[in-house]
Amino acid sequence: MSVQFLTNISEQEFKEFLKDALKETLGEKLGALKEQLPEILDVQQAAQFLKLKLATLYEKTSRKLIPHFKKGNKLYFHLSELQEWINQGKVKTSEEIENEAVTFTLKKAA
Fold first, then answer.
1. Domains in the chain with CATH codes
2. What is the pTM for the complete model shown?
């Protein structure tokens, strides 16, 4: 397929230019999103961040399934703790499980 541009740059150079421009634009958008969320979240912010209904979030806090703290009658959440809580739910790949099994077997044999 032949593509002609009205510039003196090649198709590959144009693709690289577009790729860089998109990365820059998306990076700025991500940075702005991160700046919008404070380190300490209230219940609404935490529910929105976790994409949970308020009732579900309240249930998880009452059952002590999610990290939170309470001041008076209000619940608060550390953004970093919520991110860590999400990461703890990571499902291991088959390769990771096999590596752990090999490591465990080798330690038992030693």
1. 1-36 (no CATH), 39-110 (1.10.10)
2. 0.56
